[in-house]
Amino acid sequence: MRQFSKGFLLLILLTLLVSQSIAQKSYQFDGGFGSAFLKDGTKLSGQISYDFKRDMLQVQTEKRQFAFEASQVEAFSFNQNDVPRYFESLRVQLNNGYVRHQIFELLYRGQASLYSRIASVVPTSAPASRSGFRGDIPTYRMLATDNSPQGRNLSPQERGLASQRRSGMYQINYDFYYTRPDSAFPVDLAERSFKRFKSAFGEYRNEINDFIKSENIDIKDPLDVAKVIAHYNELLQEM
Q1: 3-state helix, strand, coil in the chain (%, to 5)
Q2: What is the pLDDT of residue 181?
Q3: 11 inside domain
Q4: Whose CB among 11, 22, 229, 237 lies 3.0–4.6 Å from 114's, allowing a Cys bridge?
C-alpha cells in the first residue's frame, strides 16, 4: 500500500481535543488564539470559540467580542497544544431540500477532502473503543505536511482526558463527510453503516470495500477514515 504519498495532502488533524464541557454534552468549544476569515474579506485575530450545535463562531479580540453565523464565515484556524486546527463553513443540503451553512473541521485536504463534526457525546460504561477520542493509545498519530507519519507525546491535560476515556466516562461520536469535484455539497459518509459508507464512493465502492478489508479499517476512527480518503484520491488520479 502506498502511504498517503499521493493527493494534495495538507495535514491530518487528529488532535480532536475535547474540554470538560464535552463530558457535559455541550457542543460549544473554546479553541485558542487564531484567525477567522469572513466571507466579506474581513480577517479577525483573537481567542476563537465555536459551537457545532448552533453553527456559530465567536472571536474575542483585544477590543470586543464578535459573533458570526456560519453563513458569514469562510474559515477559521487556531493552535491547540501547539497543533494547528482548521475549520471551514460549507454549504449543506438538508433532507427537506433547504440549503444552509455548517461548520466542519478539516482533517485531510486533497482532490477529495475529509471533514468531521461531533455528532454526539454520551456517557458509557463500555470499554473505550478505537472510535471517538483515542485515549487508548500513548501518542497521537497524524500526518505531517511532508506526508510522513509522526507522533507526539500527550500533554498532561490530554493524558487526563485519555484516562477518563479509558474509564468509560463518555463516548464521543463523529460524523465524517468528504467533498469531491462532482458534488455541490459534502457527502455524508454514514460511518454507522458499512454498506452506506462504501456506497458513498460511487463507482469506486468495490475498490474502497477491498481497501477497508485489506487494511482492517475502522470507519468510525478519524485516522482510518483519512486513510480511506487518501486511497480514494489515488483512485481518482488513476482515471
Answers
A1: 20, 40, 40
A2: 78
A3: no
A4: 229
